[in-house]
Amino acid sequence: MIQEVGTTEQGDLVVNLGPQHPSTHGVLHLVVTLNGETIKKVEPHLGYIHRSIEKMCESLSYRQFIYVTSRMDYLSSHINNHGCALCVEKGMQIEVPPRAKAIRVLMGELTRLASHQLWWGAMAMDIGALTPFFHAFREREAINDIMEETCGARLTMNYMVPGGVMADLHPNFQKRVKEFINFFRGKLHEYDELVTGNIIFKSRMEGIGYLSPEDAVSYGCTGPTARGSGVSCDIRKLYPYEVYGELQFEEVTATGGDCFARYMVRMQEMRQSISIIEQLIDNIPEGQFQAKTKAVLKLPKGEFYSRVETARGEFGVYIISEGGTTPYRIKFRSPGFSNLSALDHMARGHKIGDLVAIMGTLDLVIPDIDR
Amino acid sequence: MLSIENITHSIDAWLNGTFNPTVAVLLESLIVGFCVIGLFALLGLILVLMERKVSAYMQIRLGPNRVGPGGTLQTVADTLKLAMKEGLTPDGADKFLFNLAPFLVIVVAMMILAPVAFAKGTQIWDINIGVLYISAVSSLSVIGILMAGWASNNKYSLLGAMRSGAQIVSYELSAGLSIISIVVLTGSLRISDIIASQEDGWWIFKGHIPAVISFIIFIIAVTAETNRAPFDLAEAESELTAGFHTEYSGMKFALFFLAEYVNIFIVCAIAATLFLGGWMPLHIGHWAGFNRVMDYVPSSLWFTGKTFFLIFLIMWFRWTFPRLRIDQLLNLEWKYLLPMSMVNLLLITLIAIKGWHF
Fold first, then answer.
1. What is the extent of the structural domain holding A252?
2. What CATH code is carried by the domain that includes residue A101?
């Protein structure tokens, strides 16, 4: 008798991966139904790190709520803040000075680099190579130092305010970023030598976790996950914000749809980010780093939506304002949640080792999924 | 000249002169037993520290550097910590098998040490079926691992044990065929004969390319047999947390850990014995002068040097390569390594019959 794939029957092995498990990178709980080593079904259970961030934001003023979102996708905290600030500016119709725009984009790209570096290390660790993790952290450390100098913090920078950025750039900023870019270019080549070209790594990635473009769209996947399937969805290109419209960069897409395609998209995105930083670093306009705004921000009555491209995909901020000093309702559209929903579809029929590899290429950050 | 050989001989002569032969043999067994346990402790200390230092070097870290000079006593501190931990037995576990498994694994490791020649004339038991004994006993360790996985009453452990069973049983074939290729060249299963046959050059040089191929296959196969990365599927910490020893704690875990490192030492020692001449210094044919210079280096140093070089090689693999998937692992063995080693064995046999080796 042939059973439909995905039904649990006598003799199936149901394994709980998580909430405490080395490969889920946080408190994700996957209930995996196995037939021997082969996966029949993956069921993510969420809620272990739910902090009701949306509700918390509704009781905070428009200046304050931005910083709570650093705790969602903590690896691209600056970009999360960016999306919130854009939404408030849209509502208040604040004109951001050109210097602030350039600084925001620079910081955003540095954050994307740092996030992708961490992803690269964690990805290799999931596959079983432990050494790349330390190499990735060495480079990430340099970015964190740059962030610390200008923003005063290394992970949750809280550098964004409605109307600009909180403080001007540190005098060393340009010099250190240039040093870092030169240093990192060589290291990126090393990354390729150590991991990308490795025959075991390739055989573990190629043809694994296929996601067709149609499925990517219907699951709502964004970011490198969808671009690995050939879906063009880069918000920086499609709906340019800040100075992205004036910059020369390419939207990286791959057509494979498998783990290796997603991997290569992220590797190429790092190169694109480097190019964006190089274009901007010598052309930061002089002037104000912050627009003059009222002490108390009040959004007019209405609904406002803005979106940005984080390291993981499209991050949307939806604010309903009743005209008061706090939002009436806030909804965040986080990329991780939609990307995770495709996991079951991608993992079925593969082995346990592949599940870990697929999760690695989705680049999940659990607080981003749970909020 | 004071050498290990002379010391063992004088002890043997003294014991046989003082006691009657039965008591002498019993006392010798006792001494040897203590020596093996002492060697185990020493190997554990050295190899764990070496692994940590090698991995630290590869990962741009310093590694242990606080306990003792340069962190040399770190393993002692870790062992003390593990000895003081409570040995938990999970609910629903098969208590007898659960507690027996680590001892079985470690006893198997001790048994394989018997025919290994550590230096000239320093060998516990020069049995005439030496290499056959090694490959027979080493296959017993899989029983310990399967026992541990089954008795733990844990799904991760069970999966790990399943993988380990499939893996060790498959890779034993290639390892065995590689061993046989040297047996074919030497014409003897006895370890001392195999070493003596390499007096005018190591088999890896004398046996042409087929010997090199079988050396490479042997290294790959034993890496898999000892469950080391890139074949560490039985542990696979990113998939199965800790695989077959997930539920073990305290000293029982330490025994698994120790057995892993001692097994690495043993397989590297065997590889060094078969392909790199064991304790035999580097001799080249009839270059008497060169050979005499090489003889000045003590045989025990030659043996440890070769063995530790191979151990470093295996550690290097671990900290560089990603892990294979279970089906790729079995494909590699059954589709590539096994046919290759069979053809290679035929070539070696041809070389041996025709006398083409040096």
1. 48-370
2. 1.10.645.10
B319 to A15: CB separation less than 8 angstroms, yes or no? no
Q: What is the pLDDT of residues A245-260, one digit of tens each?
A: 888 888 888 888 888 9
Q: What is the pLDDT of residue A3?
A: 46
Q: Does A5 touch chain B (CB under 8 A)?
A: no
Residue A104 lies in a domain: yes
Has residue A199 been placed in a domain?
A: yes
Determine the distance in angstroms separating the CA of A77 from the nearest CA of chain B, rounded to an integer: 26
Three-class secondary structure assignment of A153-206: CCCCCCCEECCEECCCCCCCHHHHHHHHHHHHHHHHHHHHHHHHCCHHHHHHHC
Tens of pLDDT, residues A1-28: 344 444 556 678 888 887 888 777 778 8
Of B59, B233, B326, the CB nearest to A131: B59
From A22, A37, A124, residue closest to B326, measured CB to CB = A37
Q: Is B131 on the interface with A (CB under 8 A)?
A: no
C-alpha distances in angstroms, B123 versus B13, B35, B100, B120?
16, 12, 29, 8
Q: Does B86 touch chain A (CB under 8 A)?
A: no
What's the number of domains chain A is made of? 1
Which residues of chain A are within 8 Å of residue B155 when distances are taken between CB atoms? 13, 15
ipTM beyond cut 0.90: no
Quickly count: other Cβ atoms within 10 Å of residue A293's Cβ.
17
In a domain? residue A301: yes
Considering the domain boundaries, does residue A2 fall inside one?
no
